[in-house]
Design brief:
Blueprint: E1 5-8, E2 13-18, E3 36-39, E4 44-49, E5 59-68, H1 79-89, E6 95-98, E7 103-108, H2 112-121, E8 125-127
Parallel strand pairs: 1-8
Antiparallel strand pairs: 1-5, 2-4, 2-5, 3-4, 5-7, 6-7
Length: about 130
């Protein structure tokens, strides 16, 4: 498992919940910035910049993304666990998103300093965003 490098992604994110049969809205289908769209039988979940989300949509803003600096091979075990365990021990809630190359862990923006401190105390290294 070991320690990993991470960056704090710029901007405040919102987590949006829509119905499972709703189409992906045009405001979420942007090409700039961080966007994650996941559809299941139960919901359509979107993570995107707070300003993109219309007022009449069920959402929770105030999240900041921490990006683990990958890529990580699929057979590497424990990457996400080693990163989120110190956050859990510090009582910090997370929302995790994985991509082909890496993992993103969202924390509430008002708890960002505590999250970074917990990660650094566990040996993880914060890098400056490019």
């Amino acid at each position: 498992m070991g320690a990993h490098s991470f960056v704090v992604e710029p901007g405040e994110l919102a987590i949006v919940r829509l119905g499972p049969d709703e189409p992906v809205p045009t405001w979420a289908a942007r090409t700039e910035g961080f966007v994650s769209i996941t559809r299941t039988r139960e919901e359509l979940s979107i993570v995107c910049a707070v300003p993109w989300v219309p007022d009449n949509v069920r959402s929770e803003g105030g999240w900041t993304a921490l990006k683990l600096l990958g890529p990580f091979p699929f057979d590497q075990v424990g990457v996400l666990s080693s990163f989120v365990s110190p956050l859990a021990e510090a009582g910090i809630s997370i929302f995790a998103i994985s991509t082909f190359d890496t993992d993103y862990v969202l924390v509430k923006s008002d708890g960002l300093d505590a999250a970074v401190a917990a990660l650094e105390a566990a040996g993880h290294r914060r890098e400056e965003a490019p």
